């Protein structure tokens, strides 16, 4: 079943969808970085190396998020149901917004739900939090691949 899913990923529709998801997530991840610390300020404070790592992680996370959503679409086409793992890319974005966001916004959000603490200073411009987001996306991909391989089909082919 996985080979059929990967064949579907090569279709024009899913390739265009993947490109759109990639562009969308690149914009989101770049905006989240900008809310935390601009790339020029990051370069002045931490050096070019950290900026390059952050941009590389943004590209990787956007690609993997697009792949995750395309795998979920392929699974829906093949099995008639969506993968629960596809939600982890959006959880990753929400996690990023809450941790990379400007401190006053995050404090106001947490205060509105009754939490009186927040991340005051993010080490290395939020790099550990970005790695956690990447881990969430990878878990989502592995979960979706497992559902494609071992999940039940909507149609029973046994006679």
Describe this entry's structure for a reader.
The chain is an all-alpha fold. The protein has one domain (about 1-150). About 75% of the residues lie in helices and about 0% in strands. It has seven helices and no strands. The protein is elongated and about 50 Å long. The two termini are about 20 Å apart. Mean pLDDT is about 75; it is low at about 115-120.
Please indicate the percent range of residues in DSSP E strands (runs of 2 or more).
under 5%
Q: Which oligomerization state do the chains in this entry correspond to? A: single chain
The number of helical elements comes to 7
Uncertain segments are 114-120
* Fraction of residues in H or I helices: over 70%
- Helix/strand order, N-terminal first: HHHHHHH
End-to-end distance: 20 Å
Secondary structure class reads: mainly alpha
Mean model confidence by pLDDT: 76
Kindly provide the radius of gyration, computed on alpha-carbon positions and rounded to a whole number of angstroms. 18 Å
Query: What is the domain total for the residues?
Result: 1
Number of strands: 0
């Amino acid at each position: 079943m996985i080979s059929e899913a990967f064949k579907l990923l090569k279709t024009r529709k899913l390739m265009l969808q993947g490109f759109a998801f990639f562009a969308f997530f690149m914009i989101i991840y770049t905006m989240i970085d900008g809310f935390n610390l601009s790339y020029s300020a990051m370069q002045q404070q931490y050096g070019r190396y950290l900026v390059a790592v952050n941009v590389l992680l943004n590209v990787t996370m956007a690609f993997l998020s697009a792949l995750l959503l395309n795998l979920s679409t392929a699974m829906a086409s093949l099995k008639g149901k969506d993968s629960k793992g596809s939600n982890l890319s959006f959880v990753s974005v929400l996690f990023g917004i809450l941790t990379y966001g400007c401190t006053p916004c995050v404090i106001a959000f947490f205060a509105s739900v009754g939490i009186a603490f927040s991340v005051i200073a993010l080490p290395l411009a939020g790099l550990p939090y970005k790695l956690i987001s990447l881990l969430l996306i990878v878990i989502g991909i592995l979960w979706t691949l497992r559902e494609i391989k071992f999940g039940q089909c909507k149609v029973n082919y046994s006679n």
